[in-house]
Design a protein that fits this description.
The chain has about 280 residues and is an alpha/beta fold. It is about 50% helix and about 20% strand. Bound molecules: ligand C2E and calcium ion (3 copies). One calcium ion (CA) binds next to strand 6.
Length: about 280
Protein backbone atom coordinates (compact mmCIF):
# COMPACT_ATOMS: atom_id res chain seq x y z
CA UNK A 1 0.00 0.00 0.00
CA UNK A 2 2.67 2.41 1.13
CA UNK A 3 4.80 1.53 -1.88
CA UNK A 4 1.87 2.12 -4.24
CA UNK A 5 1.20 5.51 -2.69
CA UNK A 6 4.82 6.55 -3.05
CA UNK A 7 4.91 5.31 -6.65
CA UNK A 8 1.76 7.29 -7.35
CA UNK A 9 3.30 10.39 -5.83
CA UNK A 10 6.39 10.07 -8.02
CA UNK A 11 4.22 9.62 -11.06
CA UNK A 12 2.27 12.78 -10.28
CA UNK A 13 5.48 14.65 -9.62
CA UNK A 14 6.82 13.46 -12.95
CA UNK A 15 3.67 14.65 -14.76
CA UNK A 16 3.86 18.04 -13.04
CA UNK A 17 7.51 18.41 -13.95
CA UNK A 18 6.90 17.47 -17.58
CA UNK A 19 4.06 19.97 -17.71
CA UNK A 20 6.24 22.66 -16.19
CA UNK A 21 9.07 21.85 -18.59
CA UNK A 22 6.72 22.06 -21.57
CA UNK A 23 5.38 25.36 -20.33
CA UNK A 24 8.79 26.90 -19.87
CA UNK A 25 9.82 25.62 -23.30
CA UNK A 26 6.74 27.32 -24.74
CA UNK A 27 7.62 30.51 -22.87
CA UNK A 28 11.16 30.66 -24.19
CA UNK A 29 9.94 29.71 -27.69
CA UNK A 30 7.47 32.59 -27.53
CA UNK A 31 10.21 34.98 -26.51
CA UNK A 32 12.40 33.97 -29.42
CA UNK A 33 9.37 34.08 -31.72
CA UNK A 34 9.07 37.77 -30.93
CA UNK A 35 12.77 38.39 -31.46
CA UNK A 36 12.93 36.40 -34.67
CA UNK A 37 9.67 37.71 -36.11
CA UNK A 38 7.98 34.31 -36.37
CA UNK A 39 4.54 35.83 -35.95
CA UNK A 40 2.31 36.76 -38.84
CA UNK A 41 -1.12 38.29 -39.19
CA UNK A 42 -4.01 36.74 -41.06
CA UNK A 43 -7.05 38.72 -42.11
CA UNK A 44 -10.59 37.35 -42.01
CA UNK A 45 -12.94 39.35 -44.24
CA UNK A 46 -16.00 41.02 -42.72
CA UNK A 47 -18.83 41.70 -45.16
CA UNK A 48 -21.91 43.89 -45.15
CA UNK A 49 -25.35 42.81 -46.37
CA UNK A 50 -24.45 43.72 -49.96
CA UNK A 51 -21.52 41.33 -49.85
CA UNK A 52 -19.01 44.18 -49.81
CA UNK A 53 -15.89 43.68 -47.72
CA UNK A 54 -15.91 46.38 -45.05
CA UNK A 55 -12.74 45.20 -43.36
CA UNK A 56 -11.19 42.28 -41.53
CA UNK A 57 -10.46 40.81 -38.15
CA UNK A 58 -6.75 40.56 -37.54
CA UNK A 59 -5.76 37.12 -36.21
CA UNK A 60 -2.24 36.24 -35.14
CA UNK A 61 -0.42 33.14 -36.39
CA UNK A 62 2.84 31.65 -35.22
CA UNK A 63 5.14 30.12 -37.80
CA UNK A 64 7.15 27.85 -35.50
CA UNK A 65 10.43 26.63 -37.04
CA UNK A 66 9.77 23.00 -35.98
CA UNK A 67 6.07 22.77 -35.24
CA UNK A 68 4.75 24.69 -38.25
CA UNK A 69 1.76 26.99 -38.04
CA UNK A 70 0.63 27.19 -34.40
CA UNK A 71 -2.90 28.41 -33.66
CA UNK A 72 -3.39 31.29 -31.23
CA UNK A 73 -5.58 29.01 -29.11
CA UNK A 74 -2.34 27.20 -28.18
CA UNK A 75 -0.30 30.20 -27.07
CA UNK A 76 -2.41 33.30 -26.34
CA UNK A 77 -3.61 31.92 -22.99
CA UNK A 78 -0.06 31.18 -21.92
CA UNK A 79 1.17 34.56 -23.16
CA UNK A 80 -1.55 36.20 -21.08
CA UNK A 81 -0.40 34.33 -17.95
CA UNK A 82 3.26 35.20 -18.38
CA UNK A 83 2.72 38.79 -19.50
CA UNK A 84 4.29 38.11 -22.90
CA UNK A 85 0.95 39.17 -24.39
CA UNK A 86 2.04 42.76 -23.74
CA UNK A 87 4.90 42.81 -26.28
CA UNK A 88 3.03 40.41 -28.59
CA UNK A 89 -0.07 42.62 -28.51
CA UNK A 90 2.05 45.69 -29.13
CA UNK A 91 3.55 43.99 -32.18
CA UNK A 92 0.07 43.11 -33.49
CA UNK A 93 -1.11 46.71 -33.09
CA UNK A 94 1.97 48.11 -34.77
CA UNK A 95 1.65 45.75 -37.75
CA UNK A 96 -2.02 46.65 -38.01
CA UNK A 97 -1.29 50.38 -38.05
CA UNK A 98 1.39 49.82 -40.71
CA UNK A 99 -1.13 47.87 -42.82
CA UNK A 100 -3.74 50.61 -42.45
CA UNK A 101 -1.11 53.15 -43.50
CA UNK A 102 -0.41 51.18 -46.69
CA UNK A 103 -4.14 50.86 -47.49
CA UNK A 104 -4.92 54.47 -46.79
CA UNK A 105 -2.54 55.50 -49.56
CA UNK A 106 -4.79 53.70 -52.09
CA UNK A 107 -8.28 55.01 -52.89
CA UNK A 108 -9.75 51.50 -53.27
CA UNK A 109 -8.63 50.40 -49.80
CA UNK A 110 -8.93 53.68 -47.94
CA UNK A 111 -12.03 52.76 -45.95
CA UNK A 112 -11.04 49.23 -44.96
CA UNK A 113 -11.34 48.69 -41.22
CA UNK A 114 -9.18 46.38 -39.16
CA UNK A 115 -10.38 44.86 -35.90
CA UNK A 116 -7.69 43.82 -33.42
CA UNK A 117 -8.17 41.50 -30.43
CA UNK A 118 -7.09 43.10 -27.16
CA UNK A 119 -6.40 41.07 -24.01
CA UNK A 120 -7.41 42.16 -20.56
CA UNK A 121 -3.80 42.57 -19.37
CA UNK A 122 -2.99 44.86 -22.28
CA UNK A 123 -5.80 47.24 -21.49
CA UNK A 124 -4.96 47.14 -17.80
CA UNK A 125 -1.56 48.73 -18.47
CA UNK A 126 -1.61 52.46 -17.90
CA UNK A 127 0.60 52.83 -20.98
CA UNK A 128 -1.94 51.19 -23.29
CA UNK A 129 -3.92 54.27 -24.33
CA UNK A 130 -0.89 56.56 -24.85
CA UNK A 131 0.84 53.81 -26.85
CA UNK A 132 -2.11 53.36 -29.20
CA UNK A 133 -2.44 57.13 -29.63
CA UNK A 134 1.28 57.38 -30.39
CA UNK A 135 1.05 54.65 -33.05
CA UNK A 136 -1.88 56.39 -34.72
CA UNK A 137 0.22 59.58 -34.90
CA UNK A 138 3.37 57.82 -35.99
CA UNK A 139 1.65 56.10 -38.92
CA UNK A 140 -0.64 59.04 -39.60
CA UNK A 141 -3.64 56.78 -40.04
CA UNK A 142 -7.34 57.57 -40.05
CA UNK A 143 -8.20 56.11 -36.64
CA UNK A 144 -11.78 55.45 -37.71
CA UNK A 145 -10.40 52.40 -39.50
CA UNK A 146 -9.03 50.94 -36.28
CA UNK A 147 -11.36 48.84 -34.15
CA UNK A 148 -10.41 47.16 -30.89
CA UNK A 149 -12.20 43.96 -29.87
CA UNK A 150 -12.76 43.46 -26.16
CA UNK A 151 -14.37 40.46 -24.48
CA UNK A 152 -16.93 40.50 -21.73
CA UNK A 153 -14.49 39.05 -19.18
CA UNK A 154 -12.64 42.31 -19.50
CA UNK A 155 -15.58 44.32 -18.28
CA UNK A 156 -16.10 42.79 -14.86
CA UNK A 157 -13.20 44.80 -13.48
CA UNK A 158 -13.14 48.52 -12.87
CA UNK A 159 -15.80 49.82 -15.24
CA UNK A 160 -15.09 53.50 -14.53
CA UNK A 161 -11.42 53.12 -15.35
CA UNK A 162 -12.25 51.11 -18.46
CA UNK A 163 -14.79 53.70 -19.61
CA UNK A 164 -12.24 56.51 -19.20
CA UNK A 165 -9.59 54.63 -21.18
CA UNK A 166 -12.02 53.76 -23.96
CA UNK A 167 -13.33 57.33 -24.12
CA UNK A 168 -9.83 58.71 -24.76
CA UNK A 169 -9.41 56.44 -27.76
CA UNK A 170 -12.97 56.99 -29.01
CA UNK A 171 -12.33 60.73 -28.90
CA UNK A 172 -9.47 60.14 -31.33
CA UNK A 173 -11.73 58.12 -33.65
CA UNK A 174 -10.98 54.53 -32.58
CA UNK A 175 -14.00 52.26 -32.21
CA UNK A 176 -14.66 49.30 -29.93
CA UNK A 177 -16.53 46.06 -30.38
CA UNK A 178 -17.63 43.55 -27.78
CA UNK A 179 -16.39 40.12 -28.85
CA UNK A 180 -18.00 36.74 -28.11
CA UNK A 181 -21.11 38.54 -26.94
CA UNK A 182 -23.48 36.37 -24.96
CA UNK A 183 -20.88 33.98 -23.53
CA UNK A 184 -19.92 36.11 -20.52
CA UNK A 185 -21.91 37.78 -17.84
CA UNK A 186 -21.65 41.47 -18.55
CA UNK A 187 -24.61 43.36 -17.22
CA UNK A 188 -26.67 45.43 -19.58
CA UNK A 189 -26.02 48.57 -17.53
CA UNK A 190 -22.29 48.16 -18.17
CA UNK A 191 -23.01 47.63 -21.81
CA UNK A 192 -24.90 50.88 -21.88
CA UNK A 193 -22.14 52.87 -20.19
CA UNK A 194 -19.24 51.70 -22.31
CA UNK A 195 -18.60 53.50 -25.62
CA UNK A 196 -19.04 50.40 -27.79
CA UNK A 197 -20.00 50.67 -31.43
CA UNK A 198 -20.32 46.99 -32.31
CA UNK A 199 -21.60 43.75 -30.81
CA UNK A 200 -20.18 40.49 -32.12
CA UNK A 201 -22.53 37.56 -31.65
CA UNK A 202 -20.50 34.56 -30.58
CA UNK A 203 -20.08 31.65 -32.97
CA UNK A 204 -21.60 29.22 -30.45
CA UNK A 205 -25.02 30.82 -31.03
CA UNK A 206 -24.61 30.96 -34.78
CA UNK A 207 -23.57 27.34 -35.26
CA UNK A 208 -26.96 25.88 -34.22
CA UNK A 209 -28.98 28.23 -36.43
CA UNK A 210 -31.57 27.99 -37.74
CA UNK A 211 -32.81 24.65 -36.36
CA UNK A 212 -32.26 25.28 -32.64
CA UNK A 213 -34.99 27.45 -31.20
CA UNK A 214 -33.09 28.74 -28.17
CA UNK A 215 -30.19 29.87 -30.39
CA UNK A 216 -32.73 31.54 -32.65
CA UNK A 217 -34.19 33.42 -29.71
CA UNK A 218 -30.79 34.50 -28.41
CA UNK A 219 -29.62 35.69 -31.80
CA UNK A 220 -32.84 37.60 -32.49
CA UNK A 221 -32.63 39.20 -29.05
CA UNK A 222 -28.99 40.24 -29.43
CA UNK A 223 -29.66 41.79 -32.83
CA UNK A 224 -32.64 43.73 -31.44
CA UNK A 225 -30.62 44.79 -28.41
CA UNK A 226 -27.76 46.06 -30.55
CA UNK A 227 -30.13 47.91 -32.86
CA UNK A 228 -31.95 49.56 -29.96
CA UNK A 229 -28.63 50.79 -28.59
CA UNK A 230 -27.52 52.10 -31.95
CA UNK A 231 -24.78 49.52 -32.35
CA UNK A 232 -23.68 47.55 -35.38
CA UNK A 233 -24.24 43.82 -34.93
CA UNK A 234 -21.79 41.45 -36.56
CA UNK A 235 -22.19 37.68 -36.60
CA UNK A 236 -19.04 35.58 -36.36
CA UNK A 237 -18.63 31.98 -37.44
CA UNK A 238 -21.20 32.11 -40.25
CA UNK A 239 -20.68 28.83 -42.09
CA UNK A 240 -23.89 28.13 -44.04
CA UNK A 241 -26.29 29.93 -46.38
CA UNK A 242 -29.13 29.08 -44.00
CA UNK A 243 -27.37 30.80 -41.10
CA UNK A 244 -26.65 33.84 -43.27
CA UNK A 245 -30.29 33.95 -44.46
CA UNK A 246 -31.60 33.82 -40.89
CA UNK A 247 -29.25 36.60 -39.79
CA UNK A 248 -30.13 38.85 -42.74
CA UNK A 249 -33.85 38.25 -42.19
CA UNK A 250 -33.51 39.31 -38.57
CA UNK A 251 -31.62 42.53 -39.23
CA UNK A 252 -27.97 41.58 -38.74
CA UNK A 253 -25.87 43.77 -41.03
CA UNK A 254 -22.32 42.43 -40.90
CA UNK A 255 -20.94 38.93 -41.28
CA UNK A 256 -17.74 36.99 -40.81
CA UNK A 257 -17.18 33.27 -41.24
CA UNK A 258 -16.01 30.37 -43.35
CA UNK A 259 -19.06 30.80 -45.65
CA UNK A 260 -17.27 33.86 -47.01
CA UNK A 261 -13.65 33.16 -46.17
CA UNK A 262 -11.25 31.74 -43.63
CA UNK A 263 -8.62 34.09 -42.20
CA UNK A 264 -6.17 34.76 -45.05
CA UNK A 265 -2.57 35.83 -45.39
CA UNK A 266 -2.36 39.36 -46.83
CA UNK A 267 -1.88 38.51 -50.54
CA UNK A 268 -4.88 36.14 -50.50
CA UNK A 269 -6.93 38.74 -48.66
CA UNK A 270 -6.14 41.33 -51.36
CA UNK A 271 -7.19 38.82 -54.04
CA UNK A 272 -10.40 38.15 -52.12
CA UNK A 273 -11.23 41.86 -52.06
CA UNK A 274 -10.45 42.16 -55.77
CA UNK A 275 -12.82 39.29 -56.58
CA UNK A 276 -15.69 40.57 -54.45
CA UNK A 277 -15.35 44.06 -55.90
CA UNK A 278 -15.65 42.64 -59.44
CA UNK A 279 -18.58 40.40 -58.54
P1 LIG B 1 -11.86 35.09 -31.63
O1 LIG B 1 -11.49 36.50 -31.37
O2 LIG B 1 -13.22 34.66 -31.21
O3 LIG B 1 -11.62 34.87 -33.20
C1 LIG B 1 -12.47 34.12 -34.02
C2 LIG B 1 -11.93 32.73 -34.23
O4 LIG B 1 -12.91 31.96 -34.92
C3 LIG B 1 -10.67 32.68 -35.10
O5 LIG B 1 -9.88 31.61 -34.61
C4 LIG B 1 -11.23 32.35 -36.48
O6 LIG B 1 -10.30 31.70 -37.32
C5 LIG B 1 -12.35 31.41 -36.11
N1 LIG B 1 -13.41 31.40 -37.11
C6 LIG B 1 -13.80 32.41 -37.90
N2 LIG B 1 -14.84 32.06 -38.68
C7 LIG B 1 -15.13 30.77 -38.36
C8 LIG B 1 -16.13 29.84 -38.83
O7 LIG B 1 -16.96 30.12 -39.70
N3 LIG B 1 -16.12 28.61 -38.24
C9 LIG B 1 -15.23 28.26 -37.28
N4 LIG B 1 -15.29 27.03 -36.77
N5 LIG B 1 -14.29 29.12 -36.82
C10 LIG B 1 -14.24 30.37 -37.36
P2 LIG B 1 -8.30 31.76 -34.39
O8 LIG B 1 -7.71 32.60 -35.49
O9 LIG B 1 -7.75 30.41 -34.18
O10 LIG B 1 -8.19 32.60 -33.06
C11 LIG B 1 -8.59 32.06 -31.84
C12 LIG B 1 -8.62 33.09 -30.74
O11 LIG B 1 -7.30 33.55 -30.43
C13 LIG B 1 -9.41 34.35 -31.11
O12 LIG B 1 -10.79 34.11 -30.95
C14 LIG B 1 -8.84 35.35 -30.12
O13 LIG B 1 -9.48 35.22 -28.88
C15 LIG B 1 -7.41 34.88 -29.98
N6 LIG B 1 -6.53 35.75 -30.80
C16 LIG B 1 -6.21 35.66 -32.12
N7 LIG B 1 -5.37 36.65 -32.48
C17 LIG B 1 -5.14 37.40 -31.37
C18 LIG B 1 -4.35 38.57 -31.09
O14 LIG B 1 -3.69 39.17 -31.97
N8 LIG B 1 -4.37 39.03 -29.81
C19 LIG B 1 -5.11 38.42 -28.82
N9 LIG B 1 -5.09 38.94 -27.59
N10 LIG B 1 -5.87 37.32 -29.06
C20 LIG B 1 -5.88 36.82 -30.30
CA1 LIG C 1 -12.18 38.46 -31.91
CA1 LIG D 1 -14.99 36.19 -31.31
CA1 LIG E 1 -15.61 33.13 -30.15
Amino acid sequence: QGVAAVAMMFMLLHILQTDAAERSELDSDLRSALREEQFALHYQPQLDSNGQVVGAEVLIRWQHPQRGLVSPAEFIGRAEKTGLIIPIGRWVLRQTCAQLRAWQDHPACRDLRLAVNISQNQLRQSSFVPEVLAMIEEYGIDARCLELELTETLIVQDVDDLTRKMAKLVERGVSFSLDDFGTGFSSLSHLKRLPLSTLKIDRSFICDLPADSSSETIVRTVIALGQSMGMTVIAEGVETEAQHRFLVDHGCTQFQGYLFSKPLPLPAFMTFIGNTVQA
